[in-house]
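Technical annex, item 7. During the second reporting period the consortium partners agreed on a shared format for inverse folding records so that results from different sites could be compared directly. Each record opens with the tokenized structure and is followed by the designed sequence. A conforming record, contributed by the partner at site C, is shown below for reference.
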């Protein structure tokens, strides 16, 4: 099994939508993601999606954004999503994606990389720790997506 890691292009939108929906389903949720939004995301100069591809099939993705950070006086990277299709899990695909990202960041002015994980997702936490990430802060968030979805009549898991 030869896996290549590459940056996503707009024609990868259907595969990206599929993987994000698979990720949402694992949490018994739904995602309002659509191909048009993926294209918009990919056009953002500070947002990137890395894809893992095997035999021409996209089997995983890692999305991330860079943003300026005043405290660190450099860029900060936020890993947004990391998902590997169910049939390709436990084969090192996620590690390949994360290793590629960390390698890219090491060659830039990026000061730090961070990721949020649900506290009871011990598997994900162990995965990130194996790759050198440490628990350093509590990540707090407020969701507005439910308000947006409710105003359009959509529902979220």
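Designed sequence (site C submission):
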């Amino acid at each position: 099994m030869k896996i290549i890691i590459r940056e996503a292009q707009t024609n990868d939108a259907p595969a990206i939508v599929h993987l994000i929906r698979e990720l949402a389903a694992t949490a018994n949720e739904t995602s309002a993601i659509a191909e048009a939004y993926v294209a918009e995301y990919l056009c953002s100069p500070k947002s990137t999606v890395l894809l893992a591809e095997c035999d021409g099939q996209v089997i995983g993705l890692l999305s991330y954004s860079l943003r300026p950070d005043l405290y660190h006086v450099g860029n900060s990277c936020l890993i947004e999503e990391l998902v590997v299709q169910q049939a390709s899990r436990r084969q090192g695909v996620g590690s390949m994606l994360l290793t590629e990202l960390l390698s890219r960041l090491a060659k830039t002015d990026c000061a730090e990389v961070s990721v949020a994980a649900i506290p009871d997702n011990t598997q994900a936490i162990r995965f990130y720790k194996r790759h050198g990430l440490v628990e350093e802060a509590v990540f707090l968030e407020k969701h507005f997506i439910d308000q947006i979805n409710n105003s359009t009549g959509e529902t979220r898991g």
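The mean pLDDT is 90. The beta strands are 3-7, 47-54, 57-69, 74-84, 110-115. All partners now use this format for quarterly exchanges.
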